[in-house]
Amino acid sequence: MTSLIERQVDIPTPAGSMNAFVARPAGSAAAPLVIMCMDIWGVRPQLFEIAKRIASHGYCAVVPNFYHRDGVNGFDFRNARGQTLSMDLTSKEQQDAVRRHGAALTNEMVDADVGALLRYFENEPVSQGPAGSVGFCMGGRHAMFIAGTRPERMTATASLHGTQLVSDKPGSPHRFADRFRGEIYCGFAEHDPYVPPRVAATLGDLLGSRPNLRYRSDMHAGAHHGMIVDQLDADLFHAVCLCSPVTGTVCPAAAGPSTARTLAASVSGANGFCTHATPEFRMPVSPMVSSVYPDM
C-alpha cells in the first residue's frame, strides 16, 4: 500500500482563498497533478476517498472547493440510518440551497480557480507537465471546459455522468472540439434523466475521429446518474486512476490479464488515462435512498 500525505490547503484566488483537499504519495518526487471537479453536492468525504485512490497510483490528487465564494464546502444530507439522501428526498429548503450554489457556479469561475490552483502547485513537489482532471455531474462539464481552455496542460480528462456537455451556451464543452488535446473519456449512465442519449451520440460523432484527440465513451447498462460517487446498488463499484507512461507509471490492471473491462483509453499513448472495475481497484460507494439529481 502506497504511503500517502493528506492535507487541507488554502489556495489564493482572485475571488479569495479557496480551500482544497490534497492527497499525494509520500516523498519528494514530483507527482503528476489530477484535479477532481466536484459535483453539485460540493466537496465532502466521498470525493476525498476517491482522491486517495487516485493518489495511491502515484498522483497528486486535488479536490478544490469551487463553492468557496459562497463560504460553503459541501452538502451531505442523511436519514436516521445514515444513508445519503438524494435531492428528491430532501426538504425544499435543502434543495433550494444546493441548487442555488450549483447554478451560481459558472464555467468561467471554475477556470479562474483552476488557474490559481495551477499557480499554487508550481511551488509544490508536483510535475509541471501534462495533468489530468476527473469530474462528476456538473464537474464533468467543468473538467471538459478546463481541458478546452488549457489544452496545453490538461491532456487527460474523465467526465463521469457529466451534465450539459452539449448545449446552446457559449461555454458548452462540445464547442472546444478543435482545442482538445490528449485523451477524453466520458462515462454515461443508461438511466440518466439529465443526460439524454443524444448527448453521447453527439459527442461520439464530434470527437470520435479527430486527429487532435483520443476520445472514448461508455454507456453503463443499468446505471443511474450519480453512479460513480453514490449508488443505490451497493454492489456496484468504480474507481478512477490516471496512468501515464510519461511518468513511468504503468497501470497494473491494464498491463495484466484483461479479465475486467477497461473503460477508457489504453496507457500506450503519451498521456493516457484509464478507469477500471477490477477487484483490486474497487471502491465501495455509499448506498443512497434514491438516485434523482438536479440538472447541474
Keywords:
6 helices; two-stranded parallel sheet; globular; 8-stranded mixed β-sheet; 296 residues; Rossmann fold; alpha/beta
Task: Describe, in plain words, how this protein is organized in 3D.
The chain is globular and about 45 Å long. With 296 residues, it is α/β, with parallel strands linked by helices. The strands form three sheets. It has an eight-stranded mixed β-sheet, sandwiched between helices. It has one domain (4-287): Alpha/Beta hydrolase fold, catalytic domain (Rossmann fold), CATH 3.40.50. Helices cover 22% and strands 25% of the residues. The chain has helices at 45-55, 92-104, 107-120, 138-149, 197-207, 252-255, and strands spanning 4-13, 16-25, 33-37, 60-64, 131-136, 154-160, 183-191, 214-224, 230-231, 239-241, 274-276, 286-287.
Give the secondary structure arrangement, pairings included.
Elements lengths: L3 E10 L2 E10 L7 E5 L7 H11 L4 E5 L27 H13 L2 H14 L10 E6 L1 H12 L4 E7 L22 E9 L5 H11 L6 E11 L5 E2 L7 E3 L10 H4 L18 E3 L9 E2 L9
Parallel strand pairs: 3-4, 3-5, 5-6, 6-7, 7-8, 9-12
Antiparallel strand pairs: 1-2, 2-4, 10-11
Helix pairs in contact: 3-4
How many domain modules?
1
**Strand order of the main beta sheet, please?**
1-2-4-3-5-6-7-8
Number of strands: 12
CATH architecture type: 3-Layer(aba) Sandwich
Strand content: 15-25%
Helicity range: 10-25%
Shape: globular
Outline the biggest β-sheet.
8 strands, mixed
Mean pLDDT: 74
Rg (C-alpha, Å): 18 Å
CATH superfamily: Alpha/Beta hydrolase fold, catalytic domain
Poorly predicted parts: 230-296
Number of helices: 6
Look at the structure and give the CATH class: Alpha Beta
The assigned structural class equals alpha/beta
CATH fold descriptor: Rossmann fold
The helix-strand sequence is EEEHEHHEHEEHEEEHEE
Rounded to the nearest angstrom, the distance between the terminal CA atoms is 36 Å
